[in-house]
Amino acid sequence: MTDVRIDDFLLGEVDVDSPVISTPMQRAASQLQRALPSGWKVEVAEATYPTVRKGQPVLRLILPEG
């Protein structure tokens, strides 16, 4: 097995302002975005309503402004 030291990877070496991290939820949001009609948007947000999912990522649909 390869010994990898996490300390060797510094975010300061990345040239972009905020590195994009792809998560399963973000990939699902991207797939849903491609299937929605024009004007609709999908975002990954943190659940805030009082359920067992509070604090976990959820998909939020944003209706087009009309």
**End-to-end distance, in Å?**
57 Å
Helix share, percent: 10-25%
Biggest sheet record: 2 strands, antiparallel
Spatial strand order of the main sheet: 1-2
How would you describe this structure in keywords?
66 residues; flat; single chain; 18% helix; alpha+beta
Quick overview:
This protein has one helix at about 25-35, and strands spanning about 40-45, 55-60.
Per-chain topology:
Layout: H1 24-35, E1 41-46, E2 57-62
Antiparallel strand pairs: 1-2
Walkthrough of the structure:
With 66 residues, the chain is of the alpha+beta class. The chain has a domain at 24-62. Helix content is 18%, strand content 18%. The chain is built from one helix and two strands; from the N terminus they run αββ. The chain has one helix at 24-35; strands at residues 41-46, 57-62. The longest helix is centred in the middle third of the chain and has 12 residues, at 24-35. The chain starts with 23 loop residues before the first helix and ends with a strand. The model is unreliable at 8-16 (pLDDT under 50).
